[in-house]
Design brief:
This protein is α+β, with helices and mostly antiparallel strands and about 120 residues long. About 30% of the residues lie in helices and about 40% in strands.
Amino acid sequence: MTRIFSILVVLALLLGARSSYAADSDAFCTRDATGAGSCYGSFTGFQVPMVGFVDFEMLGSIGIFSAAYRGKSYGCQAAPGSEWLPAIMAATSAYRFYLQVDWDDTGNCTWVTVQNASWL
């Protein structure tokens, strides 16, 4: 009986580690020397413990994207009139599956895409 229990514990640990890695591989942020950068991946990928988070919000008429990934902060803003403001506004209230956000060296969003999806 003890042997069966030990095997089940080992399997549970292996499966747990594997699923955590898979989710982590679905999230990534980077920034170059100028400060321009990008974050992309699935929302669930960013929710893995010790990986980070992503957030879309409206602060008055300014859309803000912020993220933390592996201990570093990332983000950009879309000012009124920006072509990316509607995408940030939609992301603040919609269920999300995949995101990609790029920004320039001044912190302005240069690309925002958020997708809804469902796979069985």
